[in-house]
Amino acid sequence: MTELQFNSWQTIQDEVLRRIHVRDWPPGAVIPNEADLAKEFGCARATVNRALRALAEAGILERRRKAGTRVALHPVSRATVDIPIIRQEITGRGQAYDYRCMSRSVTRPPSRVIDRLGIQGGVDCLHVTALHLASGAPFVFEDRWINLATAPDAAEQSFDALSANEWLLANIPYTHGDIRFAAEAASEHDATVLETSHGEPVFVMERVTWDHDRAITFARLCYAPGYGIVTRFGSAP
Amino acid sequence: MTELQFNSWQTIQDEVLRRIHVRDWPPGAVIPNEADLAKEFGCARATVNRALRALAEAGILERRRKAGTRVALHPVSRATVDIPIIRQEITGRGQAYDYRCMSRSVTRPPSRVIDRLGIQGGVDCLHVTALHLASGAPFVFEDRWINLATAPDAAEQSFDALSANEWLLANIPYTHGDIRFAAEAASEHDATVLETSHGEPVFVMERVTWDHDRAITFARLCYAPGYGIVTRFGSAP
DNA sequence: GAGTGGTCTAGACCACGGT
DNA sequence: CCGTGGTCTAGACCACTCG
Fold this sequence. Notes:
Low-confidence stretches of chain A: none
CATH class of the largest domain in chain A: Alpha Beta
Number of helices of chain A: 7
Largest interface: A-B, 55 and 55 residues
Structural class of chain A: alpha+beta
Mean pLDDT of chain A: 93
Strand content of chain A: 35-45%
CATH topology of the largest domain in chain A: Chorismate lyase
CATH architecture of the largest domain in chain A: 3-Layer(aba) Sandwich
Number of strands of chain A: 11
Radius of gyration of chain A: 24 Å
Oligomer: homodimer
Strand order of the largest sheet of chain A: 5-6-7-10-9-8
Helix content of chain A: 25-40%
């Protein structure tokens, strides 16, 4: 009845959020369908759809055909984390970037890596280790295995000056990847490279990158003590 | 010329990705505008818009009015991390959830917390510490400060049986939050509670939750050794 | 100023999946 | 079966911003 104008999809999104916040639509409740909301808000159904779809992508609403749209029962906070190229991450902080390749060899990877890459035994991989420095100080130690069956051109790269991180991104297309964040104790080798102590807590990021069903590379990034990842969830500034 | 049918926005997205992958449109290049692509693909401009907007949200394209759409120069991997309620995280692994409140008091927070909450000095907060257990083993230690100016009802809660984590989510609406992941050495107290050793690496998540410009709560979650966060980026399975 | 993406509309058909 | 969201269309106006 209150035919107030909600013309933009963001206005509608705000109104829906408000109704959720004031428990007009409590968690688990089914909200009116798109057609009814469009009529109430005095706009096209596509506009309502745009607003509700964005909220569903944020994890606030759950939508299913025929069943309708309901307020999520178990509010998960869905945060988006941007993982930049290491060079960008360092120069973005106003620090000087430096790179040092530490080893390069073609070997059969340990079973731990074979499992992550999902490859058959006996496949040789290119193993590269390198250090990325920020203003001269060790920033992150990169321990990477490249599947030569997927990225054969990598065999001709020395990675002396250009990091595998950047070369792969610039030359090998990927479709998706897995990431794992964890806290680990610095190994003897990690500690030496990062100029810290054995057993010191280090932030570790492990990434596997894929091109469709073919594994490209597995990387273990071991960050110097003090590193952290910052991110946000929700909409407002 | 090739008036093949690209009717769905996902088909168009795949085709755009393919052209990026084969360096038809290299990083930094400006791609044709929506109207031209719509003509080429034989579909409505809105359909092209849908496909390109999704790729922009994924960080693969950068779009600006008048300047047009270009392939992102510095490919960031944008991963989405779901942060569930702790109870859900544990029961979702098929383990039994248990909760133990360890302390509760109204105090003035340390300056470190005051800074994160962005509040004026002299404001009292509710300080709650608690342990969440998975199948009887310590899982995560929660050290939380609740801003009573924003959530006054919290003062009447004992948090003996229901964790602050769940009570807040169910009773205090929020709009957004900040998250920080890091690796730290377990303090003497952390170690005792988590049944590990002093100095052991632990995964730490710090969260500040807001309702518009009012801080609700700051939580430091200290996970038992071995914990990690897994996530994905990109589109394919 | 003018080109580009951003958005809205009114209508239509379709695919999924509860009932 | 049939209601619901998912999507597409053709056209229109607007807002931003680059040149």
